[in-house]
Amino acid sequence: xxxxxxxxxxxxxxxxxxSYAEGLKKAGYTVGAITRSQSSIDYAIEHGIIxxxxxxxxxxxxxxxxxxxxxxxxxxxxxxxxxxxxxIKPGALLTDVTGVKxxxxxxxxxxxxxxxxxxxxxxxxGRETSGVQNATARVFEGANYIVTPTFKNTPEAIETCEEIxxxxxxxxxxxLTTAEHDEMIxxxxxxxxxxxxxxxxxxxxxxxxxxxxGDSFRDLTRIARINEEMWTELFLLNRNELLRQMDLFSAQxxxxxxxxxxxxxxxxxxxxxTSTERRGYFDxxx
Length: 286
Description:
Helix content: 40-55%
Strand order of the largest sheet: 3-2-1-4-5-6-7-8
Number of strands: 8
Shape: globular
Radius of gyration: 21 Å
Number of helices: 12
Low-confidence stretches: none
Order of helices and strands: EHEHEHEHEHEEHEHHHHHH
Strand content: 5-15%
Distance between the termini: 27 Å
Mean pLDDT: 95
């Protein structure tokens, strides 16, 4: 159990960073934050999401904290470590919320001071909104949390990282290698975003079509409201794995198209039966 005298620092007070902060604060921990916007700091303090915050990275502030959670774009996270790791308290544990691991975890671990430890984590949660103003720890309820330890991580760090997931209320806590994580995320998250983006780019008359749509189209394209800066970076960092998943989807889409073109009812029905059976595993159980 992480003792209540441990202090958490959130670097990047957006939707997920803010939700981490709110959940940890409600659990009784001291929480500080560093982010770019003073208005975000002011909002978070006013609403009891954090105890203290700053837009300036100083040793005086950073060195107060025992556990540091990075909620930044991957390249910004790496740049932060390069510039400011000397400010971090000796013996501190570092973790993150980054959506790609292979291009991040090994690099960060290789550049860290020997008295610091970094262990990757990925909260599989989010909304189609951004900013600490939309943060809520409720976003983690029923969600999955993935830890990506390497041979450089100690059992104590792994347990602490998993404990953060339990504190925040995640339903399932899993452990994957960075490669397993990136394959999984390439299929379950990145591919689905690619499909939604592609679908929304098919027709120019979206305003007209929106007057006629049903829930199926809205549900399928919910994630098409997308942060182009962040997702472009994530796609490119996981390029090879994502391309494999896109090819997998393309092959099945072509199979279905060919079945329709050829009037192949048996193949169409078989694909639909398989789809129905597999979809059942993804239904959230109460």
